[in-house]
């Protein structure tokens, strides 16, 4: 979803992943339509670089992961997986990408105008928010080619309703965006013509959040709960008090009282 005034940080002609930043939103685009944006070695490498750059850039508040061509991502590039060594390399690298998205201190939004399969679904699940066009479809196709959706299960299973996970992992059945929304894989399924507006609706809300508060909230959502309710409340009380007393908390309270935008909100 390029925007007027966006800054392209990596304008190389032969790259498979592009990025640009506009008003605090970094858009990372998978651009390998010749193989349906498969997770080739080059694409994995460039995606890692673009994610790292966006996370390190203080001007970036939100990351959008999108694509060119009719397919969001078809999963691992099976043409590169002809030997055990080649496949092992991909299996070793891919978890690091999923973990980078999952643990990113900045919210990550997936924008799907087309299908996701296998590892592509893992990418979607790793993102904090996912928006899909009605035309997008999904499938855990691994069992149908004799492999197991093991790696992607780490990000997918926390999103899915358990019954749906068993059904779809075991059958490999293709399902549509509305079903994906119903079982928790995506947040919103919209007509194709409304896709960019829906993504923008989310990013416009996300940039209103304070950077440290967003990162801390993501950390809170990932945390392992304490053994007892009392211990859980105690930990969260300390966590909350720290942020209330912090610079962002004090700025946010002051901005609310003074009826102005807090300092972290990007200028129009």
What features would you describe in this structure?
There is one protein chain. With 268 residues, the chain is an alpha/beta fold. It folds into 2 domains: 17-206, 2-enoyl-CoA Hydratase, Chain A, domain 1, CATH 3.90.226; 210-258, no CATH class. It is 44% helix and 15% strand. The protein is built from 10 helices and 10 strands. The strands form 2 sheets. It has a 7-stranded mixed β-sheet with strand order 1-2-3-4-5-7-10, with helices on both faces. α1 links the parallel β3 (25-30) and β4 (62-67). α2 (84-102) runs parallel beside α3. The chain is globular and about 55 Å long. The two termini are 18 Å apart. The model has no long low-confidence stretch (mean pLDDT 91).
What's the CATH C level of the largest domain? Alpha Beta
How large, in whole angstroms, is the Cα Rg? 19 Å
Shape: globular
**If helices are DSSP runs of H or I spanning 4 or more residues, what is the number of helices?**
10
CATH architecture of the largest domain: Alpha-Beta Complex
Reading the helices and strands in chain order gives EEEHEHEEHEEHHEHEHHHH
Quick structural overview:
The chain has 268 residues and is of the alpha/beta class. It has helices spanning 41-56, 84-102, 119-126, 150-156, 162-171, 177-182, 195-206, 211-222, 229-245, 247-257, and strands spanning 7-8, 17-22, 25-30, 62-67, 108-112, 116-117, 129-133, 137-139, 175-176, 188-190.
What topology does this entry show?
Elements: E1 7-8, E2 17-22, E3 25-30, H1 41-56, E4 62-67, H2 84-102, E5 108-112, E6 116-117, H3 119-126, E7 129-133, E8 137-139, H4 150-156, H5 162-171, E9 175-176, H6 177-182, E10 188-190, H7 195-206, H8 211-222, H9 229-245, H10 247-257
Parallel strand pairs: 3-4, 4-5, 5-7, 6-8, 7-10
Antiparallel strand pairs: 1-2, 2-3, 8-9
């Amino acid at each position: 979803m390029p925007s007027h005034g966006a800054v392209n940080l990596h304008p190389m002609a032969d790259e498979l992943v592009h990025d640009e930043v506009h008003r605090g939103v970094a858009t990372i685009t998978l651009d390998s339509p010749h193989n349906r944006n498969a997770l080739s070695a080059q694409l994995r490498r460039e995606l890692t670089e673009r994610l790292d750059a966006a996370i390190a850039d203080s001007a970036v508040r939100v990351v959008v992961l999108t694509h060119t061509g009719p397919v969001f991502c078809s999963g691992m590039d099976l043409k590169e997986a002809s030997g055990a060594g080649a496949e092992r390399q991909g299996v070793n690298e891919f978890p690091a990408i999923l973990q980078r998205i999952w643990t990113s201190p900045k919210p990550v939004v997936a924008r799907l105008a087309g299908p996701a399969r296998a590892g592509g679904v893992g990418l979607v699940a790793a993102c904090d928010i996912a928006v899909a066009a009605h035309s997008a479809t999904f499938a855990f196709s691994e069992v149908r080619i004799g492999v197991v959706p093991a790696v992607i299960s780490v990000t997918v299973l926390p999103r899915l309703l358990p019954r749906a996970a068993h059904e779809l992992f075991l059958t490999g059945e293709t399902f549509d965006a509305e079903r994906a929304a119903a079982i928790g894989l995506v947040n919103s399924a919209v007509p194709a013509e409304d896709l960019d507006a829906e993504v923008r609706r989310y990013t416009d809300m996300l940039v209103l959040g304070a950077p440290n508060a967003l990162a801390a909230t993501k950390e809170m959502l990932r945390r392992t709960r304490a053994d007892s309710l009392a211990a859980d409340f105690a930990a969260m009380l300390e966590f909350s008090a720290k942020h209330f007393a912090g610079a962002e908390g004090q700025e946010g309270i002051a901005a609310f009282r003074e009826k102005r935008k807090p300092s972290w909100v990007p200028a129009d």
